[in-house]
Structures are given as structure tokens and as C-alpha cells.
Amino acid sequence: EGRILAVCDEAAAESILAAWRRRPEGAGACRIGTVTADAGRVILNTRTGGRRLVDQPRGELLPRIC
What we know:
two-stranded antiparallel sheet
């Protein structure tokens, strides 16, 4: 609940994060990834230093309704 994911130009990322961090709701805002030329693949960097390919969702995709 209460989360946002924004995809933006890399050159604007730090200024956008700084603006979010100035708000009480955005105190913990951080960059969680980058978009690369590796089209069609999402690679997760784990907390332990590993990397793994993230599977595409299966089944019918429905938005979360609260």
C-alpha cells in the first residue's frame, strides 16, 4: 500500500528522487533498477550478491482492487 514506481530518464532520476525525499511520504525513496538494452529480460540483483532472471507473470493479470 502507498507505493509508487516511476520510470524516468536516467539524467532526471536524482532530481526526482531528491524531490520525493523532501516530502514526508517519500523519505525512503530510492532507485531500485535501471533500464538497459537487454530487451525482454528482467534480472534481479539479490541482497546476497547473486543475480537471477525474473519470470514473466502467468495467467490473467488483474489490477489489485482494495
